[in-house]
Specification:
Elements lengths: L3 H15 L4 E6 L12 H5 L4 E7 L2 E6 L3 E6 L5 E6 L16 E7 L3 E6 L6 E6 L7 H4 L12 H8 L6 H6 L9 H10 L20 H31 L2 E2 L26 E5 L2 E5 L6
Antiparallel strand pairs: 1-6, 2-3, 3-4, 4-8, 5-7, 5-9, 6-7, 10-11
Helix pairs in contact: 1-7, 4-7, 6-7
This protein binds a DNA duplex through helix 6.
DNA sequence: ACACTATCCTGCAGGC
DNA sequence: TGCCTGCAGGATAGTG
């Protein structure tokens, strides 16, 4: 799935065509994705004017003028496609098999926004905006790593006292919200920290940040910022070719690079793959300690 | 409270 | 060529 940078890229791609527009019709082509659609899904959206698109962790929040918010999650394989409301539709090669087009939003600007999700791990829900903050999916989320209050101190605080490996801690959305398997691997590599190291070891005994917490916080920020930058350029390119939003090509230092030399010039290590909590971890056993 | 597993689903790559 | 296996960017219910 799209992790935070991909989700933010999708939000930035959708916002200009959706904000301020009215939803004229919704095609809901099945009863569920990962979870059932909410009651009266189509009726609650039809006729609503879209206020603003925001993001919290990997959720896209579509504010509606009637006091409700459409809560979107792309799961592992969700993507959106933007196209004009014209009859002659064209197919995108691969990955956009039209049989996985589960929801189509028709907008007042004659734009059609189609949600495609082969694995159907994504979700769509409609929640009263006033109750959004109390929604368990959002209220349990940890620090926003691109937010103003994310720093070494905040990172040390959530890691302090935990014996679970750093890899698992960084994937835990209740501690830090938005990282996924790729960017956790990339951030740990950048910070030269072993994925096996206990999370608590990056904080001092009193919970204040040490050198490792500072390195890791910097690495997380940098890795996400670079990915966002890559997403931004892909967005511009994609906009010309087709309207597909969801994934973009980005070069990774260690993710999916088992057997390749560690990209750090001064390091002679070879990228290894291990499994932690059932997920692949890619790392350099030489420079990550 | 915490940590770990199994599971939802389809597509694709690799081995035979 | 086809068949089989394992694996994939996530979240969460269930277990110990």
């Amino acid at each position: 799935m799209p992790e935070l940078p991909e989700v933010e890229t999708v939000r930035r791609g959708l916002a200009p065509v959706m904000e301020g527009m009215r939803i004229t019709a919704v095609e809901q082509r099945r009863a569920d994705l990962r979870a059932p659609f909410p009651e009266r899904f189509v009726e609650r959206l039809r006729g609503q004017r879209i206020d603003r698109l925001t993001r919290r962790a990997k959720y896209i929040l579509v504010g509606l003028d009637g006091g409700e918010t459409l809560v979107l999650h792309l799961g592992m394989s969700g993507s959106f496609r933007i196209d004009e409301e014209t009859p002659g539709q064209f197919h995108h090669p691969r990955s956009n098999n039209p049989s996985h087009d589960h929801v189509v939003f028709h907008l007042s600007n004659a734009i059609r926004v189609t949600y495609n999700d082969p694995r159907r791990f994504g979700s769509m829900d409609v929640v009263r905006t006033a109750e959004l903050a109390a929604d368990p999916r959002l209220s349990q989320l940890g620090i926003e790593p691109l937010g103003a209050d994310f720093n070494a101190q905040a990172l040390a605080r959530v890691c302090a006292g935990r014996s679970t490996p750093l890899k698992a801690a960084l994937l835990d959305q209740r501690l830090i919200a938005g990282l996924g398997n790729i960017y956790v691997c990339e951030a740990l590599w950048r910070a030269k920290l072993s994925p096996w190291r206990g999370a608590g070891a990056i904080a001092r005994k009193d919970g204040t940040p040490g050198l490792r917490a500072r390195r890791l916080a910097e690495a997380i920020g940098a890795v996400l910022a670079e990915a966002l930058e890559a997403g931004g350029s892909t967005l511009r390119d994609h906009r010309l070719a087709n309207g597909a939003l969801g994934y973009f090509q980005h070069h990774f230092a260690v993710y999916d690079r088992e057997g390749s030399p560690c990209p750090r010039a001064e390091c002679s290590g070879i990228v290894a793959r291990v499994v932690q909590n059932g997920r692949s971890t890619f790392f350099c056993p030489v420079c990550q300690r």
